[in-house]
User: Fold this.
Amino acid sequence: MIRAEKLTAGYSRDAAALHELSFTLNRGERVALLGQNGAGKSTLLLTLAGILFPSSGNLTIGGIPVTKARIDEIRRLVGFVFQNPDDQLFMPTVEDDLCFGPRNFGMDKETITKRVNDTAAVLRIPHLLKRPVYHLSGGEKRLAALAGVLVMEGEVLLLDEPCAFLDTRSRRALVAALNTLTHTMMIATHDFDLARALCSRVIILRNGSVCAEGKTTEILDNPDLLERCGL
Ligand SMILES: Nc1ncnc2c1ncn2[C@@H]1O[C@H](COP(=O)(O)OP(=O)(O)OP(=O)(O)O)[C@@H](O)[C@H]1O
Ligand SMILES: [Mg+2]
Assistant:
């Protein structure tokens, strides 16, 4: 579903933050993206979401190259949940926010209502729909931001630190909700328990390169390897 070959990308032409990354994600696979602060996790997610573009190498999602020319197709396929839900939610109520994307894509009213209600049910947030966004707690905002992405029916879900600042109960609700989804997922996190709970595979970045990759249990139970990757 996602294929990167010698992917180099970053914020300016002469300062790449990612250096020749190669990896694949199969359809439906959930992979945790680990690495110390500044390793390149968010940069990689921004590149997969088509917000930054590769400066060299190849990157395809569902067979579509991630380039400016194909960006509309990429946007339909890929949902990106920012680390900070305040970067994502901007309509007056949760319901307005959930309707915004589908309306923009020209879905009809009936379909939108059904999708919004179904998505809210999956994430157990129907009671939040009529609430003003600015009255929500941090955890509720995070669930609302995730709902806003799921309602779009993409196949790929990119999550940046989804459990940061969540209490135990919100965290458990989010993990349970994510576990019911069949999306191909890449989850950037510092939370090893989250990686164990959701992801079969782990990729560790260090200085913008892949430092280690493998089964979650094998990688996380190998202290020497983690040490070598700066974790
Ligand atoms: N907007 C930006 N402009 C220029 N350089 C940036 C920008 N954002 C991040 N960087 C640099 O790119 C590199 C990778 O940063 P990135 O945010 O991808 O790290 P990260 O792995 O997500 O870290 P963290 O765990 O702290 O979230 C760092 O050296 C960082 O300083
Ligand atoms: Mg980051």
